[in-house]
Amino acid sequence: MRITGHLDMDAFFAAVEERDRPRLKGRPIVVGSDPEDGRGRGVVSTANYKAREYGIHSAMPISKAWELSEKAKKDGNPPAVFISGSHRRYSEVSKKIFQIVAKHVQAFEQTSVDEGYLDLSFTSSYKKAETLAKKIQKEIRLKEKLTCSIGIGPNKLIAKIASDIQKPNGLIVLNEEDAENFIEPLSIRNIPGIGPKTEILLNKEGIKTVKDLKKFSAEKLRTLLGKWGTILYAKARGQDDSPVANYYVEAKSIGEQETFNRDSSDLNFITDRVKTLCGSVFNSFKKDGFKSFKIVVVTVRFSNFETKNRSRTLAEPANSLENLEFEALKLLYPFFDRRENPQKRLIRLVGIRIEKLK
Q: Could you tell me if 172 and 193 are in contact, meaning their C-beta atoms sit under 8 angstroms apart?
């Protein structure tokens, strides 16, 4: 019998900030770019639950988050505290958390800095799996002063959906008999992989809940969404055969990005910003003790929010700032001509990332 858990840290970045800065306890916290009094052009990375009461959520434009904070302030509530955050710090805390998890399970698959799947099959029963999950939650709370939510189910899909239902510090167990019925009344957005665009497309077909989705045949969904439609047909029925892989997410990449105050097509200005980002990424690379990188990635976001990533895999591992700058600029320059920017759009954001670190 397969029993799978999904652990998801609660508002992780914001929770770490609140823990590390006692003066922020109980305050609405937003981690992201500088709102610049409503003129900021970045997005929210994480908002704690107090900030979410104001309507602020991850991926929201930081300017909108600032507006909602100001509205709350006018209504007599405390304004949100905006913090740029430290991804290095979050990675350090994440490593400690998953070291705790590793002691309790035989296999787990860390999928991001703040979540992962646990193979709980060895417990042999949902009751024992629930007891173990409570033990993991308690140890994380005592040692790291942070909370997490855990979902337990017959597969990764059900476990992940369950972990998101009752936050923060939630624990939901769904056995194989109950899982399919449990997810039927949920919004289709609860199914991992369904984003805003797919939601709009499905809504046009009258599909708003998982139960609605189940009314469509595999063939109809395949016609609507291609291969993804076939996958959704299975997901709507709570089906997922993927096993829990046994690995940590070590630092697979190091990257930074910058949103400009004004959209630009100035080659000299953007080149200078990319070189600065390269320097910052390389400093992190050295401080973290890595010796080489094999892949360089450049991200460009245009004024219409279209985003492109271009990467190059090096013939040999590199370990110098000069190598990084050279490869990054080679990837960047096509965005100033017809190769990557035929409509001559202005550029809003650039990012640099290195991968395959050793």
A: no
Domain check: are 328 and 195 in the same one? no
Domain that holds residue 139: 4-12+87-179
List the catalytic residue out of 17, 109, 115, 130. 115
Active site annotation includes 306? no
Crossing angle (nearest 10°) for helices 196-204 and 218-225:
120
Cα 274 to the center of its chain, rounded Å: 24
Pairwise CA distance, residues 254 & 353, whole Å: 6
**Residue 125 sits in the same domain as residue 8:** yes
Pick the closest to residue 172 from 8, 302, 327 (CA basis): 8
For residue 122, which of 250, 246, 248 has the smallest C-alpha distance?
A: 246
Cα(3)–Cα(5) distance, integer angstroms = 7
Q: How far is CA 77 from CA 17, 28, 60, in A?
A: 20, 10, 20
First and final CA of the chain: distance in angstroms?
Answer: 38
Rounded CA-CA distance 302/347 in Å is 4
pLDDT at 356: 86
Neighbouring CB atoms inside 10 A of 112's CB total 11
The DSSP annotation for 23-57 comes to: GGTTS-EEEES--GGGT---BEEEE-HHHHTTT--
CB-side neighbour CA atoms (13 Å) of 356 = 14
Q: 322: burial class by Cβ within 10 Å (0-12, 13-18, 19+)?
A: exposed
- Band of residue 205 on the pLDDT scale cut at 50, 70, 90: very high
The mean per-residue pLDDT over the stretch 293-317 comes to 92
Q: Quote the pTM value.
A: 0.76
Q: Amino acid identity, residue 132?
A: L
Q: What integer is the mean pLDDT of 99-117?
A: 92
Residue 112 lies in a domain: yes
Burial class of 298 by CB neighbour count within 10 A (0 to 12, 13 to 18, 19+): buried
Domain containing 314 — which CATH number? 3.30.1490.100
